[in-house]
Amino acid sequence: MENSNSYSPYSSSSVDSTKPSPSESSVNLSLSLTFPSTSSQRETSQDWPPIKPRLRDTLKSLCLRQRRYNTALFVKVYMEGVPIGRKLDLSTFSGYESLLENLSHMFDTSVICGNRDRKHHVLTYQDKDGDWMMVGDIPWDMFLETVRRLKITRPERC
Amino acid sequence: MNRAIKSRLSTSEMNYFPDEVIEHIFDFIASHRDRNSISLVNKSWHKIERYSRHQVFIGNCYAISPERLIRRFPCLRSLTLKGKPHFADFNLVPHEWGGFLHPWIDALAKGRVGLEELRLKRMVVSDESLELLSRSFVSFKSLVLVSCDGFTTDGLASVAANCRHLRELDLQENEIDDHRGQWLNCFPDTCTTLVSLNFACLKGETNLAALERLVARSPNLKSLKVNRAVPLEALTRLMSCAPQLVDLGVGCYENEPEPESFAKLMAAIKKCTLLRSLSGFSEVAPVCLTAFYPICENLTSLNLSYAAELQGNHLIEFVQFCKRVQRLWILDSIGDKGLEIVASSCKELQELRVFPSDPHDEEDNNTAVTEVGLVAISAGCPKLHSILYFCKQMTNEALITVARNCPNFIRFRLCILEPNKPDPITSQSLDEGFGAIVQACKGLRRLSVSGLLTDKVFLYIGMYAEQLEMLSIAFAGDTDKGMLYVLNGCKKLRKLEIRDSPFGNAALLADVGKYETMRSLWMSSCEVTLGGCKRLARNAPWLNVEIINENESGRMERNEEDEREKVDRLYLYRTVVGTRRDAPPCVTIL
């Protein structure tokens, strides 16, 4: 894979301007060190830095997951009977516990998941099919993919 | 003992002792190097040593043939074999290059060797070999596979089913085709001898019920490392029936656990008072690490290098309480600040490895470590002797300070993520810094260098690194002189691996005899040419000189064979059995 920074062994397709340009470096450019990767299709090198495949894979999948979650996930939250809703970035929570804690704080009342209860406010959500469901039945990751809006029900309703 | 008697106990005198006595004395000599030495004393000792040798270490499986090994050591019980060269770990060696286990198992079985332990590194293992192994050696006890590939869980099933006295099945970093079968079910109900079970590298689902039953009937189980398919509740149950565990590898828990499950986990952990070593934690919610607070003070070994989800503060919060930790493997997300805390808390630290969490600098999070962390560790941890450190940058001043603080390094491996990076403060090369390291650390056996380096660093290495056995070079040096300084200077050098450095034929050919004293030499993306390699092969028939080509058909297409053409990858090694016959098309042996 040809690149203007011929001494730099790995590179993405755009030249990174924060890295020293050839004229600043004291490297002898006539060395023309070749791009180390044996597969020219890959954007980043598979053989540098020298880490083992299992670590490389672990970091790659983490990177992909983080990219997915780094985009904010704002949803509307309504408390039943209250016309004005709130907006919440779900990507900032690590699970149902922290979500409930935050909602309880935000609406100054106890909000729970799951079981129908005459006393507490129960959290429900509208999924991508448009159906209203109880929060807490599916794994958190899956929940993030399908949730469209949240509603905190009044105790009697459920 | 008075002098007169002492002077009479020469070798020839010793031979008046019956063989059993000499053999008994030899029993105290465990190191294979010492045993190699005593076998050279005289014929009698050679013979006695041969028959009493139970443990053999073969650093390069192509240096000798299985038949010759068995002829010499017929009473072999424990064998260690290494196959592919080290850089195979970093995708620089094709999968089919070689290092096949089968011929060894075949020969050992035919020779009726009473094999009990087999330890393999970077070998190609097949299900057939594992099956043959499981059926051929009645007393087989221990199988350790590190960075191997070529087999599936079906092979594991054979081992589980047929090795009646299996104590250890340790799979580290292997590429195993997971058939999601029932290999764990294949351990017979009568199998109660397991001491160590590690299947952390398996990617598929695990039969939890079978695993729990197996653990429940293994009272001697000391080490258990599960894969990511073992969820929190299952781990809790496993720990509850194995509170005697010393070494635990934890699975994966993406979601935050229910408070009840978490409480149960903590209760189970509290009962594991013998737990000393912890690893795993890939994809865990940070709170799961806190469940281990009750025992963290007891830990001597902690491997969080796969815990990519944990952020710096989570790591710091945990590690600072691991006051007895001797071996710590961690990601650089711990940061320089985190390493400063480690330096002040972990005074028993002997070995530290800091891996890059962002190897290609794709995220803008600035959490990589720098020279600051390394200096702090060197100042705070007096027992430190081994380090592997991936960092953003390094300075000469820091390295000089580290050398002064820690003259006891045996292994010093530094990898600055950006190749050819100079000292960011002075813009100079890091020759002086590494020079200080080799000068101060008189016992240094393994060294990896990185950053901007000229021939000078190799002059220092050749001059001062008297005990150096393994050297790794990447993107360093200016001329052939660099490599020559090393070859001429380092008398104890055994393994030299070089990539992307301007060393050529002159350095390669200067002292051909040197390679007889070494196990192997690797050179990739350097300046050596086909002509140079051919000359080397002609002058040194006791070496296997292998050229590994880019593509499989490389050898076939090269009709013109331009001798001036640069060799992509060269791997040469001494051998007593000549050219191997199992090389694939992409490998040319000269």
From TrEMBL, chain A:
Residues 1-40 have a biased composition (Low complexity). Pfam families: AUX_IAA. Keywords: Auxin signaling pathway, Nucleus, Repressor, Transcription, Transcription regulation. Gene3D superfamilies: Phosphatidylinositol 3-kinase Catalytic Subunit, Chain A, domain 1 (3.10.20.90). SUPFAM superfamilies: CAD & PB1 domains (SSF54277). Residues 1-52 are annotated as: Disordered. GO terms for biological process: auxin-activated signaling pathway; regulation of DNA-templated transcription. It is found in: Nucleus. InterPro entries: AUX/IAA_dom, AUX_IAA, PB1-like. One of its GO terms (cellular component) is nucleus. Residues 72-157 form the PB1 domain. Belongs to the Aux/IAA family. Aux/IAA proteins are short-lived transcriptional factors that function as repressors of early auxin response genes at low auxin concentrations. PANTHER family: AUXIN-RESPONSIVE PROTEIN IAA17, AUXIN-RESPONSIVE PROTEIN IAA31. Homodimers and heterodimers. This is Auxin-responsive protein.
From TrEMBL, chain B:
InterPro entries: COI1_F-box, F-box_dom, Leu-rich_rpt, LRR_dom_sf, Transp_inhibit. GO terms for molecular function: auxin binding. Keywords: Auxin signaling pathway, Developmental protein, Nucleus, Ubl conjugation pathway. Residues 17-58 form the F-box domain. It comes from the Eukaryota. Pathway: Protein modification; protein ubiquitination. This is F-box domain-containing protein. It is found in: Nucleus. One of its GO terms (cellular component) is nucleus. Its main location: nucleus. One of its GO terms (biological process) is pollen maturation.
